[in-house]
Amino acid sequence: MITEDFAAYAARIRLRFPAPVEANRLQAMLESFLGGVAMDCLEAGTRLIGHIKSMVEGGEEVIACSVTDHDARVRCRGRFETPRAEMDVIVNVLQYGLAKRELARIVATCAARSFPGLETMTIEDLEVEQEALIRLG
Amino acid sequence: MDMVIIAGFLGSGKTTLILNTVDRISERTGKRIAVIVNDFGNIGIDGKVMEKYGLKVQELPRGCICCTLGPNFLETVRMVQDRYDPDLVLVEPSGIADPDSILATMEHYHGRPLGRITTVVLIDAARFPVLAQAMRVPLERQLHAADMVLMSKADEVDDSRLKEVEAFARNVVGTKPVIPVSNATRSNLDVFVGRLVGQ
Fold first, then answer.
1. Interface pTM (ipTM) of the complex?
2. What 8-state DSSP symbol labels residue B99?
3. Fold of the domain built from segment(s) B2-197
4. A62, A83, B88, B105: which could form a disulfide with B70 (CB 3.0–4.6 Å)?
5. B41 vs A3: CB contact, 8 Å cut-off?
6. Residue A108: what pLDDT?
7. Distance between CA B157 and CA B69 in Å, rounded?
8. pLDDT tens digit string along B15-56?
9. Cα distance from B62 to chain A (closest Cα, Å)?
10. pTM for the complete prediction?
11. Residue A137 is nearest to which of B45, B64, B130, comparing CB atoms?
12. Number of structural domains found in chain A
């Protein structure tokens, strides 16, 4: 099912806030981020959302969210239960229609928009060899 | 060691199905189960989630086992077999995988002989109209290798949708089991497990 227009982008977004952010607020930000990525992908020309998913690293809670529908509905397994001043969000965007560089741009834009008040944000591409790997298939 | 391949398009509920049924399979069979997950990115989200829920998972990240990672997959199966010696290995390929290609890859396996290989394919009933329009041929190809089909997210659709999905599946798999299931309500998960373990 790797068609010519399939592209995958995986990244780790390292977020640092100046002070701990309340759990409900973090949850809202995360859901806004993932829904935003889906909506921006569709706006930019994604033909089919495969799976847009995220997982928050660190802490004891399991917080895994995903979007599969074109209505950009976010479903989460687990929620934030304690305030955090920092967290790493692993995000995978698997879709048909946009190139990887466009997905990287959308993820960065949505992260900046959905997590306001950050002290720092860094994005690490976890898919650096993926393009070559996919082409081999 | 038997192998069960849990395949299905991206977002069809493979990881959740495994999380919701692995204990039941283990309880009903007494088998020791290992899980191999193939995901995108250096850090696979599905494997991480499973580990958070207490499963011992061998990840096979970055690429698809049905094409670019074939040799790595064989190596991983062999390592799992040698190191953990499970009775059953559940394989969750990435959602773009063609199970036929995985079965073809397994023909080149040179580890200790495997027992039965069963392929379960999930079809997302909720997204079926969109997927059937955009991905009809690849979906049919995924179904081609299925020993059992699960119509996932059955709680989100009505009977007419389920009939539509079943007709699509039956066109490819004939009389093989086609079961509506829901990870959200857990409906028919016991039926699935029963069929899988032959009880």
1. 0.83
2. H
3. Rossmann fold (3.40.50)
4. B105
5. no
6. 96
7. 35
8. 999 999 998 999 899 998 998 888 776 667 777 777 777 777
9. 6
10. 0.88
11. B64
12. 1
How much is the pLDDT for A133? 37
**Residue A1, domain member (yes or no):** no
Decide: helix, strand or coil at residue B113.
coil
What is the Cα–Cα distance from B160 to B128, expressed in whole angstroms?
12
Domain that holds residue A16: 6-136
Enter the tokens of residue A110.
């949505």
pLDDT score of B67: 55
Smallest Cβ distance to A70: which of B9, B39, B130?
A: B130
* Alpha carbon distance A100, B125 (integer Å): 28
Residue A65, domain member (yes or no): yes
- Domain assignment present for A131: yes
Q: Write out the DSSP string of B13-48.
A: SHHHHHHHHHHHHHHHH---EEEEEEESSSS-HHHH
Nearest CB partner across the interface for A47, out of B96, B124, B134: B134
Orientation angle between helical segments A23-44 and A100-114, nearest 10 degrees: 150
Q: Give SS3 for A91.
A: strand
Structural domain includes residue A99: yes
Residues B197, B199: Cα–Cα separation, whole Å: 6
Of A64, A134, A66, residue with least CA distance to A100: A134
**Cβ <8 Å between B96 and A127:** no
Closest of B101, B167, B127, B181 to residue B9, by C-alpha: B127
CA gap A6, A34 in Å, rounded: 19
CATH assignment of the domain containing A121: 3.30.70
